[in-house]
Design a protein that fits this description.
The chain has about 450 residues and is an alpha/beta fold. The chain has a domain at about 295-360 and about 365-395. Helices cover about 45% and strands about 10% of the residues. It has 13 helices and seven strands. The strands form two sheets. Strands 5-4-3-6-7 form a five-stranded mixed sheet. It is elongated and about 135 Å long.
Length: about 450
């Protein structure tokens, strides 16, 4: 009797332990998934995610394979910018002995009979504020007195001119200098009381002056066959806003909006090609255009999957790199398009077999794996991913737009975020102008002065 009771007790204990083992195995599986996810996040860098290269420290490497290493120093064909002597200097200083070592006669410059060697020093002139006084003159003619009028830009008894205001705009926007630092710089150089409010007013004046030029830039962007798009988020008035850029090799159009959706775009191009960043971005409101997608973003996503054991991602990454190398060697476009497309579709089929099907949770849409989240846009936008190899003039990456919008992150690091929405709008329009000027190799400072003075500014056709 006692033995049977012991056996029943052991059976109950085994049942309890088995249920406990099931619970522990379930918890262990969940913890393994969580650890793998955390480890994956810990290993993210600019090579396998959207993290910036600055987060890599000294270990950052180029995103695409490079050619053989180049020799140090200037490369063949590089146009140097070494200082060269000018024919006529602004001032000349003749160095001669002060007195004769024999008779102690004192010499002057007039005693110099020949100059045997010369050297030139390039420097900036001593800073000095120039004050121009405008006066109204009275002229008598036909028995009447005729009074002159001040120029439109001279509206106050005492004011700053267009050059110092243009310098403030240049420093604050293109060089990302905070308003407080501009005030300090003006005081250090010229001893003037150019305060922060004047700098803000200068930005507002430049914003108004550039309105017709912004329309000129937008028209030029719309007329291009290849437009690069990108966006980035920044805090404006203590909330998230979005800066969008549409650019070409010659023009930059930057604007800010409270929403990141493409339906709010102010530029709706009717071009034959749009080049957009992001591996999973869709056509959005630009369905009338042909789309090309950024290969550099795709490589980063594939690298992340490869590091987590994905086999199809290894094959797809090798395929994209091979196609990139062939596109670099091709005169116009890569030949045998159908063969490449068959290989692309074959890898996508392998991915579909390897990736687990979507899992339905307690609510919402079924959850896909990271690999399937990348596979779906690969299947839906095949032409966009391969456009760089089969459409002439389409680059592999969206580097043009990324360069044109990177200035915002620099400004964020140096001068923090925007306190007002108007300030963000001012910056976007002014940065569009200065970026376009630099693309045309036009003097930025002089053209800012021209904008203040309402002088015509014409860009060459890109």
């Amino acid at each position: 009797m006692e033995l049977s009771d012991d056996i029943l007790a052991l059976k109950d204990l085994v049942s309890v332990l088995l249920r406990r083992i099931e619970v522990l195995e379930s918890e262990n599986a969940a913890l393994r998934v969580e650890v793998a996810d955390l480890r994956s996040r810990l290993n993210l860098n600019s090579k396998n995610s959207h993290k910036p290269p600055s987060s890599d420290g000294l270990s950052k490497k180029p995103g695409l394979p490079k050619g053989p290493p180049k020799k140090s120093g200037g490369q063949f064909g590089h146009k140097g910018k070494t200082l060269k002597m000018v024919d006529k200097a602004d001032s000349v200083v003749v160095h001669h002995v002060a007195s004769c070592p024999c008779c102690s006669k004192v010499f002057s410059t007039a005693d110099v009979i020949e100059v045997v060697q010369k050297r030139q020093v390039f420097d900036i002139p001593p800073p000095r504020m120039e004050v121009t006084e405008h006066q109204l003159g009275v002229v008598v003619c036909c028995g009447q007195q005729h009074l002159g009028s001040f120029p439109p830009e001279v509206g106050q008894p005492v004011q700053y001119g267009s050059r110092i205001k243009a310098l403030s705009v240049l420093l604050n926007n293109d060089y990302k200098l905070p308003l407080e630092k501009i005030e300090q710089l003006m005081g250090d150089l010229w001893g003037c009381s150019f305060n922060e409010s004047i700098a803000v007013t200068a930005n507002a004046g430049m914003y108004q002056a550039l309105e017709p030029i912004e329309e000129q830039i937008k028209t030029a962007v719309l007329a291009s066959n290849m437009v690069h798009f990108d966006e980035t988020g920044m805090r404006v008035e203590k909330s998230l806003h979005w800066f969008h850029v549409a650019s070409t090799a010659w023009f930059t159009y930057l604007f800010v909006h409270k929403n990141g959706a493409r339906k709010h775009w102010k530029v709706k191009p009717r071009c034959s090609k749009i080049f957009k960043t992001g591996p999973c971005m869709t056509a959005g409101s630009f369905k009338q255009c042909q789309h090309a997608l950024c290969g550099a973003h795709l490589l980063r996503e594939l690298t992340n999957l490869t590091e987590n054991g994905s086999k199809w991602a290894v094959k797809m990454k090798e395929f994209i790199l091979d196609l990139y190398q062939n596109s670099q060697k091709a005169t116009l476009v890569v030949a045998d398009k159908q063969t490449w497309e068959r290989e692309f579709n074959h890898i996508c089929q392998l991915a579909d077999q390897e990736e687990p099907p979507p899992k339905q949770g307690k609510r919402g849409k079924p959850k896909n794996s990271k690999g399937r989240n990348l596979l779906n846009p690969l299947l839906n936008h095949q032409d966009g991913w391969l456009a760089f190899a089969f459409i002439n003039s389409v680059p592999f990456s969206n580097n043009q737009a990324e360069r044109d919008i990177r200035c915002l992150k620099t400004k964020q690091k140096v001068a923090t975020n925007f306190q007002t929405f108007k300030g963000a709008q001012h910056y976007a329009r002014i940065q569009s102008f200065t970026s376009t000027l630099r693309k045309h190799s036009m003097n930025v400072f002089q053209n800012l002065i021209n904008a203040f003075d309402r002088k015509p500014i014409a860009f060459q056709a890109g």
